[in-house]
Amino acid sequence: MLSVRKVEPGDRELLDRAAKLDPFHRAAKLTGEHWEGALLYSDDLGPRMAVQTTTAVRVDIQFITQDKLRNAKALLEAFTPYIKVLQKRGVKEVIFNSNSAAVITFFEKRFHFRHLGGNEYSLRIQ
Fold first, then answer.
1. Most buried of 16, 103, 116, 122, CB within 10 angstroms?
2. What order of strands is seen across the sheet that includes strand 46-53?
3. How many domains does the chain have?
4. How does pLDDT run across 2-48, given as a tens digit for each residue?
5. Angle between the N-to-C axes of helices 101-111 and 68-88, in degrees from 0 to 180, rounded to the nearest 10
6. Is the CB of residue 95 less than 8 Å from the CB of residue 58?
7. CA separation for the pair 27, 85 (Å, rounded)
8. Could you tell me if residue 107 is inside a domain?
9. Is 57 helix (H, G, I), strand (E, B) or coil?
10. CA–CA separation, 14 vs 47, rounded Å?
11. Cα torsion at 72, 76, 81, 83 (round to 10°)?
12. What's the rounded Cα separation, in Å, for the pair 38 and 115?
């Protein structure tokens, strides 16, 4: 079962390291600073992913490791409750960018995101 809490200042080094391992986030120059105010999901083995919703309702996800099975399980468990929180806040659409074929396929198949063009994907939630 996942636990969730807000990202704390002490998480910055962990998120900096994770961003350096992620080709997309490295290219986008994301650092631990980007994840301030984000949610940090953990499983019994430790931090799994940080989820940040930006003002433009653009969602960024930073996987802490490249363990695809654990990351997929975390997404499956966390995503629906996360969407419910966004809906309560009046959010009507979630947008993310990715260059990862595996991430794109997962979000299209599991959550029904649609391709908007380029590397942008959208899910209408209201």
1. 103
2. 3-6, 39-43, 46-53, 59-63
3. 1
4. 999 999 999 999 999 998 998 877 776 778 888 888 999 999 999 99
5. 50
6. yes
7. 30
8. no
9. coil
10. 9
11. 80
12. 25
Check: CB of residue 123 under 8 Å from CB of residue 94.
yes
Q: Which residues contact 113 (CB under 8 A, 6 or more apart)?
A: 94, 96, 104, 107, 121, 122, 123
The pLDDT tens digits of the residues spanning 41-74 come to 999 999 999 998 765 578 999 999 999 999 999 9
The tokens describing 48, both together, are 């799994």
Position 2, amino acid: L
CB 6 within 8 Å of CB 37: yes
- Domain ranges, residue 10: 3-91
Number of H helices, E strands in the chain: 4, 7
In a domain, residue 67? The reply is: yes
Structure tokens given for 26: 């490295």
